[in-house]
Amino acid sequence: MVSGSNHANEFEVAVVGFGPSGAVAASLLGAQGIRTLAVDRDRAVYDKPRAIAIDHEILRLFDNLGIAGQLGPYIAPFPASEHFGARGQLIRRIDMVSEPYPLGYTPTMVFTQPPVEEILRAHARSLPSVVVELGTELRRLEQAPNGVTLELRGDRGPRNVTADYVIACDGASSTVRRQLGIGFDDLVFDEPWLVIDLNVNAAGLAKLPRTAAQFCDPARPTTYIVGPGSHRRFEIMLLPGEDPRAMERPEQVWRLLARWLTPDDATLWRAASYRFHALVASKWREGRIFLAGDAAHQQPPFIGQGMCQGIRDVANLAWKLARVLRGESGAALLDTYQEERSAHVRELTTRIKAIGHVICERDPDAAAARDARILAEGGGVPRTITRQEIVPPLSCGLRAEVLHAANGTLFPQPWVLTANGRQLLDAACGAGWRLVLRGDSALAHSPAIATRAAETGLRVIGIAEADHDAGPDVLREESGVVASWFARHACAAAIVRPDHYVYGVAADEAALVAMLSGLKAQLR
User: Fold this and answer.
1) What is the pLDDT of residues 285-332, one digit of tens each?
2) Mean pLDDT lowest among 36-50, 101-115, 207-221, 469-483
């Protein structure tokens, strides 16, 4: 098993690929003072939108980096998606959970990728321990017991650099994955689609649906997404015999859009044909090299989780690498990366694929039966499911040994009332390892628990409802989000990881002391 940092190496971590996942990886590492090199063969951000959706978990991470405010102009709430059946009838809605929002932000959002990616890159570059080299291509890698040598070619000509660890965020056709000889497990989804991005004028907007829509029409399944401002996206399934490249031509695009718009209504921003796949790397780690983002997995886009998945990968990995590099944990901690993320991606991809099969049904009789079944599930009326219930918890890895439904879920983030006014929990208390206690419980006032938590490296946070005066060391939350979470899970304490996933929960002091001891042993 490989060990931690070897300061003979030029960098502690090299990030290959500086798209959204790579830029966030570099920022998360740089925020911890890790000497990080990020390289990308492309000099500029791709000027057209590819990803279009992010969720509250990802915006929370962006806020932890201090950039959520800058992203505001390029983000908007993702409206409900109405699913229409073979006869054009409403069969169900996919929406977001209602207020008070569990993580403090709108649960699902649309965004414009190029300016958001510029902000992510600029933030990574601003960190003193991060070096970014664009126009720089990775030619090959070589691992040794104490590090990885990367052969690069860029403005400085061919050269070698060394790093303790490498994160490959170099996309679906990843050079690193191919050099390592790592294949994909195919979760069996392969459909040709045309993705069309438009800037729509006022006359065009008046013709379009107010919400997002899935037209589950067996003749031509189509997705419609309301982007920020005047940006609208159509994803249109291609039929057998249609040439994907020919279908990208403007005259073909406008023929497909004729049901909704004419060329007078909008400017065509992008038309690109894709095969929507469901693929997961058979291995996410080879010694000191890790795969993340599209290098590790690709999934159909039906609930907009592609970019979110890649950012979850690096958020999971970065704090673990930092601990190992600082000598706070043994390298075995890094084994939990593949364990946790591969299982999560496979489960979410399976759920997305099931939604995709519903949408992509081409047989008219099967489509009619599908519509009847979905309506029957809602008791004869279109029911609403939330995007948040589609995303699973972490099912394995670094979690408490005492099983509980809360383990592996995202810990909520309330608005709290502080001396500085109303703040989100992370802004008030920071991220990192935390022990969050119900403010009106005995645990919140136990010196023994405070001592144990400090020994394990946890920050202690007591939270009570706004109308409870639980003492000077307890935060008061505005909307009872955490109080209702503790009540629902029948506990008074939650140990929360740096990536905001719950390690474990406890209802009393004895259980919490045992859990803290277990965590300390696992982290060492």
Assistant:
1) 999 999 999 999 999 888 889 899 999 999 999 999 999 999 999 999
2) 469-483
In sequence order, the 6+-apart residues with CB closer than 8 A to the CB of 493 are 435, 436, 437, 438, 441, 443, 449, 505, 506, 507, 512
Helix H, strand E, coil C: the string for 45-63 is CCCCCCCCEEEHHHHHHHH
Q: Which two structure tokens, joined as six digits, stand for 141?
A: 């890698």
Determine whether 521 is exposed, middle or buried from the number of CB atoms within 10 Å of its CB (0-12, 13-18, 19+): exposed
The torsion angle over the Cα atoms of residues 503, 507, 509 and 510, rounded to 10 degrees, is -80
The DSSP bridge pattern shows strands 289-291 and 285-286 to be antiparallel
d(CA 318, CA 260): 45
Instruction: Determine the Cα angle at 339 with ends 336 and 342, to 5°.
Output: 135
- Angle made by CA atoms 197, 200, 203, in degrees to the nearest 5: 150
3-state secondary structure of 292: coil
- Residue 128 vs residues 33, 37, 132: alpha-carbon distances, Å: 8, 11, 11
φ/ψ (deg, to 5) at 204: -70, -40
Do 508 and 437 form a contact (C-beta atoms < 8 A)?
A: no
Residue 358 CA, chain-centre distance (Å), reads 24
- Rounded to 5 degrees, φ, ψ at 454 are -60, -40
Specify burial of residue 507 (Cβ count, 10 A radius: 0-12, 13-18, 19+): middle
Helix axes 306-325, 56-65, angle to 10 degrees: 40
What pLDDT shows up at residue 6? 56
277's enclosing H/E stretch is strand 266-281
Give yes or no for residue 399 having a pLDDT over 70. yes
Tokens of 260: 């909704």
Report whether 167 contacts 292 (CB < 8 A).
Answer: yes
Closest alpha carbon to 439 in 500, 490, 486, 374: 486
Contact 183, 252 (CB under 8 A): no
| 25 class by beta-carbon count within 10 Å (0-12 exposed, 13-18 middle, 19+ buried) | buried
Let me know how long the chain is: 524
Cis peptide bond N-terminal to 107, omega within 30: no
Could you list the beta-strand ranges (E) of 358-420: 383-386, 415-418
With residue 84 as reference, give the H or E element that holds it.
Answer: strand 81-84
- Strands (E) across 145-181 are located at 147-154, 157-168
For 207, the token pair is: 């013709």
